[in-house]
Specification:
This protein is of the alpha+beta class. The protein contains 16 helices and 20 strands. Strands 2, 9, 10, 11, 12, 13, 14, 15, 16, 17 and 18 form an eleven-stranded mixed sheet that branches. Strands 1-5-6-8-7 form a five-stranded antiparallel sheet, covered by helices on one side. Strands 3-4 form a two-stranded antiparallel sheet. Helix 9 packs antiparallel against helix 11 and helix 15 runs antiparallel to helix 16.
Length: 525
């Protein structure tokens, strides 16, 4: 029998809660887009993740700080080699329709997300974590081969292919929550409709009016329903940042996830209590399509990166405290100090021109590129600035904008030359950023493929200690920088407005998720 040790201590839920003995009410939040699906194992768009995180509870869950704590499992153990996680489910778990939940539901769920028939994209970032994960996702092995088991109704086991210290955070994501097999098999793709959908989280779907709102109400069957303060949550899709701000100012929204950077000065003076600027785990990048012959030459990629003055982008355009990024991973996560480098702007431009000339481009034969970005005034300003910087070194740029979901689909399908993307690491570990560039992963929209990068990541997973692991991950970052796999622009802060009536919002949560379970409102509406 393998020796097990108790997993990382799970913080007490009660200790994290503010006083939420509040009147029931509805929290109304604005988001930059519509959910593409409310099936956690099919959805891709960020607004879907926000909603699903409130509708479903996985083995673990994220607390108000964005840290993994007890969820459907009240505790777990980890084997000495870090490969086997054993989760002990709470007794008496129920679906929102009152039917019981057991480890068999988790077994069904994990196998469903790995089944190619589900067309799931969420597993792609973590497929190599699970024993036989990639082979199952490719259809090379049956779903029963996936490294998961349900040895008893209250116990669920996960077998990892290699140690992953960040796995508890992954185990808290709704994609790995139990799925209601009895509803899915009865209704097929229609199982997420209001009145049909069944979930196990603190809230349950009440209504979804596309283009208007998704509404969820408190789930009375949730195991901790007595400590959920809110009666309901409304998620409203609002693509235009100025419209979102007007609705917030009018009191029609309690929180918005972004606003135009040119409004920051006014907000600091007029709405300081509502303004929330805080660190995040996000990075804005320009992503190359490595399938395109012109970007297969590392000299071209390097030149385009050198030509961009990131300080101008952060100080003159975005103006929110975002930090210029020369690397994909924030240096602190690799145990490094931030540096602006020794090169001057003049030398960067000279080097960019030299590299382009070596690659065969010049006044008689200029490099031409197309830059695709989400429709947004901020994104437009950054794109116009980047195009002007590229023009200085002789590059001609066509700008193309489209709505968020159109850009996301085009990116997944490889229908772009260079595309603006915002990448968020789901956990405070470099692997959360590197997962977007792993060879063969569906999450790798750029089709970047580097033997040196893969080798460094493989070595990191086998590292004997944390120091060696971090050093090896640093090697992977150095490979990305040397090969200029992507153009990092700036490490983002989160820009939000939160009404003063909202209780439980925490700025030390660096993730993109603010679970409504931990929030309340001071007055009911």
């Amino acid at each position: 029998m393998k020796r097990a040790r108790l997993g990382r201590a799970i913080a007490s839920i009660a200790a994290l809660l503010p006083c939420l003995a509040l009147a029931g009410g509805t929290l109304r939040t604005g988001h930059p887009g519509e959910p593409d699906s409310l099936d956690p194992q099919v959805a891709v768009a960020a607004p879907s993740l926000v909603v699903d995180n409130d509708l479903f509870e996985a083995l673990l869950t994220l607390d108000a700080r964005g840290k993994p704590v007890a969820g459907a499992a009240e505790r777990y153990t980890v084997s000495k080699d870090g490969l086997t996680y054993r989760f002990y489910l709470r007794r008496g778990l129920k679906w929102s329709d009152g039917k019981p939940i057991s480890s068999a539901d988790f077994l069904y769920s994990f196998r469903r997300v790995a089944d190619p028939a589900t067309a799931a994209t969420g597993l792609s970032s973590w497929v190599d974590l699970f024993v036989n994960g990639r082979a199952v996702l490719r259809g090379e092995m049956p779903v029963e081969s996936l490294g998961v088991a349900a040895p008893s109704p209250e116990i669920f086991e996960v077998q990892l292919a290699s140690p992953a210290p960040y796995f508890p955070t992954i185990a808290a994501f709704p994609i790995f929550a139990p799925m209601p097999r009895h509803v899915i098999e009865a209704h097929g793709r229609q199982w997420t409709r209001p009145g049909v959908m069944v979930s196990n989280g603190p809230f349950v779907l009440e209504d979804w009016r596309p283009g208007q709102f998704v509404r969820a109400r408190r789930n009375p069957q949730f195991h901790d329903a007595a400590n959920v303060a809110l009666d309901a949550v409304e998620y409203r899709p609002i693509a235009d940042l100025n419209t979102a701000l007007r609705l917030f100012q009018a009191g029609d929204l309690d929180a918005i996830t972004n606003f135009s950077p040119e409004k920051l000065g006014w907000l600091r003076s007029n709405m300081p209590r509502e303004l929330r600027i805080a660190p995040s785990l996000g990075v804005t990048v320009y992503l190359f399509n490595h399938r395109n012959p012109k970007f297969r030459d590392p000299r071209v990629r390097k030149a385009l990166s050198l030509a961009i003055d990131r300080g101008v982008l952060t100080d003159k355009i975005v103006q929110s405290g975002d930090l210029p990024a020369r690397t994909l991973v924030p240096p602190a996560l690799l145990g490094r100090k931030a540096t602006s480098g020794n090169a001057t702007r003049t030398s960067d431009l000279a080097e960019a021109k030299r590299l382009l000339a070596e690659a065969g481009y010049g006044p008689a034969h200029p490099l031409e590129v197309e830059l695709l970005y989400h429709t947004s005034e901020e994104h437009k300003k950054v794109a116009v600035a980047a195009a002007a910087m590229w023009q200085v070194v002789g590059v001609k740029t066509r700008l193309r904008n489209a709505e968020r979901q159109v850009v996301e689909v085009a990116t997944r399908n490889g229908e772009f030359e260079i595309v603006r993307a915002a990448w968020f690491s789901p956990y405070e570990d470099p692997m959360g950023y590197f997962s977007y560039l792993r060879a063969g992963s569906p999450a790798n929209a750029s089709a970047y493929d580097s033997r040196d990068f893969e080798s460094a990541l493989d070595k990191a997973t086998l590292a004997a200690d944390a120091t060696t692991r971090l050093r090896t991950l640093g090697v992977a970052e150095d490979v990305l920088a040397r090969e200029q796999a992507v153009i990092p622009l700036y490490h983002m802060v989160s820009r939000r407005l939160v009404a003063t009536r909202v209780v439980g919002w925490r700025d030390d949560n660096r993730t993109a998720l603010r679970p409504a379970r931990w929030m309340g409102v001071r007055d009911a509406r």
